[in-house]
Specification:
Its cofactor is Zn(2+). It is an enzyme of class 1 (oxidoreductase). Its main location: cytoplasm. The protein is α/β, with parallel strands linked by helices and 379 residues long. 25% of the residues lie in helices and 23% in strands. It contains 12 helices and 17 strands. Strands 3, 4, 5, 8, 9, 16 and 17 form a 7-stranded mixed beta sheet that branches. A 6-stranded parallel beta sheet has the order 12-11-10-13-14-15, with helices on both faces. A 4-stranded antiparallel beta sheet has the order 1-2-6-7, with no helix packed on it. Strand 16, helix 12 and strand 17 form a beta-alpha-beta unit. It is globular and about 65 Å long. It starts with 7 loop residues before the first strand and ends with a strand. The mean pLDDT is 97. Bound molecules: nicotinamide-adenine-dinucleotide, ligand AHE and zinc ion (2 copies).
Length: 379
């Protein structure tokens, strides 16, 4: 291939500083080194975690950087020793790696992987602890090991899922984060059983995917909780059977839910990133067995609290990263499920823009009507 082994200059949205508009720059992308893969990103969506890091509240946030972690593309070239993908393969970059060799991967207890996490947390590649992105010699940090707001990116080979080439990349890019997170929170982390009563706090993409997962698991009631009542109409299509707006009640929301459910829900999911809501989500769980899963990402310095008595009396507090899915093994399986129409993806896409319109896309994210906005990277 003509570009193999060469530096590629392409367009990328660079976050120079926290909260300052992203700037479309000509960025130099170095060739992949051993164990690395260079990907032509065709489509990327925006996730609230990109906005979180951009806001400056992420303790791992480094600037200047290239954000983005929910994308799909085609392998352009691979570094030495890469065997599982080759140029031309259709792939989804995975911010949660899966090396299949480390203590985490071999534990059988978690989807977290330890192989490259230290490097991805400080915005560099593991080989030489340097970035593959630069602008006129000035390094630009990677983000979450993916940096998909660039027409080309370099990732570790343990962070690439090879997927069905028939699958539409402009849709399956969503399987890089939000949708699997919600589905997996229900199926892998909570393991919701048929007949369960479920409460979902926050009806954005992640919360709606929780509802979808709970419906598939056979939940008998799926109670959506959101401060925006307009969310209920859409949420019904994803399985939400009842809706509660905390603003319509004088009582604390946990009490409202306990009263509605004869003592509390079997499972609750916090899909917002608000530590007060995390407490409410735990405390609305049924005594003796109710389990609450934290999915939302809260800002640096925020802490959760509750009376220990809540746990002493049998409630369980858990969290989930990427819904507990093993990325390289299970993202292709999720793509296949989408192709068989067993899970929704298209329904979460409310807007489509281009890379050049990325700041507008971030503005849209803060509007109630936006679930996922997909950017076409080469228009
Ligand atoms: N753990 C993971 O692996 C993982 C993966 C993806 C996203 N996330 C996180 O999940 C969270 C949700 O992501 P999203 O894309 O669905 O976000 P979103 O902003 O689209 O959805 C959040 C919803 O919460 C509602 N809300 C806000 N404050 C509320 C309150 N006090 N009470 C009730 N509802 C409230 C909003 O109206 C909105 O509908 C974010 O924090 C994101 O960073 C975590
Ligand atoms: N740097 C952040 C981490 C935030 C966080 O918890 N990220 C989630 C993914 S959010 C995707 O939209 C996650 O999977 N965490 C596990 C991991 O990062 O290994 C902070 O410190 O707040
Ligand atoms: Zn995300
Ligand atoms: Zn591993």
């Amino acid at each position: 291939m003509a570009t193999q082994g060469q530096v590629i200059t392409c367009k990328a949205a660079v976050a120079w500083e926290a909260n300052k508009p992203l700037v479309i720059e000509d960025v130099q992308v170095a060739p992949p080194q051993a164990g690395e893969v260079r990907i032509k990103i065709l489509f990327t969506a925006l996730c609230h975690t990109d906005a979180y890091t951009w806001s400056g509240k992420d303790p791992e946030g480094l600037f200047p950087c290239i954000l983005g972690h929910e994308a799909a593309g085609i392998v352009e070239s691979v570094g030495e020793g890469v065997t599982e993908v080759q140029p031309g393969d259709h792939v989804i970059p995975c911010y949660q790696a899966e090396c299949r060799e480390c203590k985490f991967c071999k534990s059988g207890k978690t989807n977290l992987c330890g192989k490259v996490r230290a490097a991805t947390g400080v915005g560099v590649m593991m080989n030489d602890k340097k970035s593959r992105f630069s602008i006129n010699g000035k390094p630009i940090y990677h983000f979450m090991g993916t940096s998909t707001f660039s027409q080309y990116t370099v990732v570790h080979d343990v962070s690439v899922a090879k997927v069905d080439p028939q699958a539409p990349l402009e849709k399956i890019c969503l399987l890089g984060c939000g949708v699997p997170t919600g589905l997996g929170a229900v199926w892998n982390t909570a393991k919701v059983e048929a007949g369960s009563i479920v409460a979902v706090f926050g009806l954005g993409t992640v919360g709606l995917a929780v509802a979808e997962g709970a419906k598939a698991a056979g939940a008998s009631r799926i109670i959506g909780v959101d401060i925006d009542s307009k969310k209920y109409d859409t949420a019904k299509n994803f399985g939400v059977t009842e809706f509660v707006n905390p603003k319509d009640h004088d009582k604390p929301i946990q009490q409202v839910l306990v009263d509605l459910t004869d003592g509390g829900v079997d499972y609750s999911f916090e899909c917002i990133g608000n530590v007060s809501v995390m407490r409410a989500a735990l405390e609305c769980c049924h005594k003796g067995w109710g389990t609450s899963v934290i999915v939302g990402v809260a800002a640096s310095g925020q802490e959760i609290s509750t009376r220990p008595f809540q746990l002493v009396t049998g409630r369980v507090w858990k969290g989930t990263a990427f819904g507990g899915f093993k990325s390289r093994s299970q993202v292709p399986w999720l793509v296949d499920k989408y192709m068989k129409k067993e899970i929704k993806v298209d329904e979460y896409i409310t807007h489509e823009l281009t890379l050049g319109e990325i700041n507008k896309a971030f503005d849209l994210m803060h509007e109630g009507g936006c679930l996922r906005c997909v950017l076409s990277m080469h228009e």
